[in-house]
Design brief:
By secondary structure, the protein is mostly helical. It has 6 helices and no strands. The chain has one domain. The protein is elongated.
Amino acid sequence: MRRLLDGLYDAAAWLGAIFMVGTLLSVLAGVLDRQFAWSLRGTDMYAGYCMAASGFLALAHTLKKGEHIRVTLLVNSLKGRAKRAIEVWALAAACALAMLFAYYSVKLSINSYEYHDISTGNDATPLWIPQITMGLGAVILVIAFIDELVLELLGRRVQVGSDEALHHE
């Protein structure tokens, strides 16, 4: 099960990286379009769609690598059961919030599909298509938070901390 979950997080991150390349290509196409007057439509919109997709799809992987921003001043000052209680509470709250976010993200995509909602830009893209990546990323984030909560409850959670605090600017 561990390999399956880690594979899911890695696959979503790789897909996010592909969308990041899509952002680059869309911006490059827009620049070239303005330079050579090719009349490409929607390059700015597609760059935005790709950027949003890359961000949402990378959320779970970022969480599992310990790179999300956490305010640990209180948590680091606690020890034992109190620290664990705060961790469990924080993870349970994060699960609940992520579930709400995922529910409404998926619902938004479904509603856009049902109502044939299209982009207001000159690309006229059906909005459910780029919204799918937001819903997918949010659902994978829920799975990652539940994974973290279960690991914490079982006492097997390894806290991977970012070394960003060690760098002084």
